[in-house]
Amino acid sequence: MTIDKTNATRNCASNAYCKPTAARPYLKVLTGAFATKVIFAASTTPLVATSVNFTVCGDTSTASAQREIILFAGTFQATHLLELSGVGNASLLES
C-alpha cells in the first residue's frame, strides 16, 4: 500500500522499506550506485537472479544475494537494466 493509514499520507520507498529494516546487519544501502547488470543462475527456469553488478564513483562491484534480489530502478531504467542483463526485447538483445 502506498498510503500510510496512520496519517493519511503517501508512503515513499524509504519510509515503507528502508527505515523498518535499516538495523538489519545484512542490509547495506548505497547512494549514487548505478546497477549495470543482473546476473542469473545458469540453467534455471524460471530465471533466478543471484547477484548484481554496479558502479559507484567509477568503481565496479558485485553484490550477491542468498535469498532474493529486489529490482527497483523505475519504469525505464528497470527495462534498460534487464536488457543489459539479457532479458527483454529479442531484436534489441541481438544488436
UniProtKB/TrEMBL annotation:
Q: Which residues cross the membrane?
A: none
- UniProt protein name: Glucose-methanol-choline oxidoreductase N-terminal domain-containing protein
What organism, scientifically named, is this protein from? Letharia columbiana
Q: Does the keyword Oxidoreductase apply?
A: yes
The UniProt entry's sequence similarity note says: Belongs to the GMC oxidoreductase family.
Residues annotated as domain Glucose-methanol-choline oxidoreductase N-terminal = 6-91
| UniProtKB keywords | FAD, Flavoprotein, Oxidoreductase
Record PANTHER family: GLUCOSE-METHANOL-CHOLINE GMC OXIDOREDUCTASE (PTHR11552), GLUCOSE-METHANOL-CHOLINE OXIDOREDUCTASE N-TERMINAL DOMAIN-CONTAINING PROTEIN (PTHR11552:SF201)
**MF (Gene Ontology):** flavin adenine dinucleotide binding; oxidoreductase activity, acting on CH-OH group of donors
- The keyword tRNA processing is annotated on this UniProt entry: no
Cofactor needs: FAD
Classification via InterPro entries: FAD/NAD-bd_sf, GMC_OxRdtase, GMC_OxRdtase_N
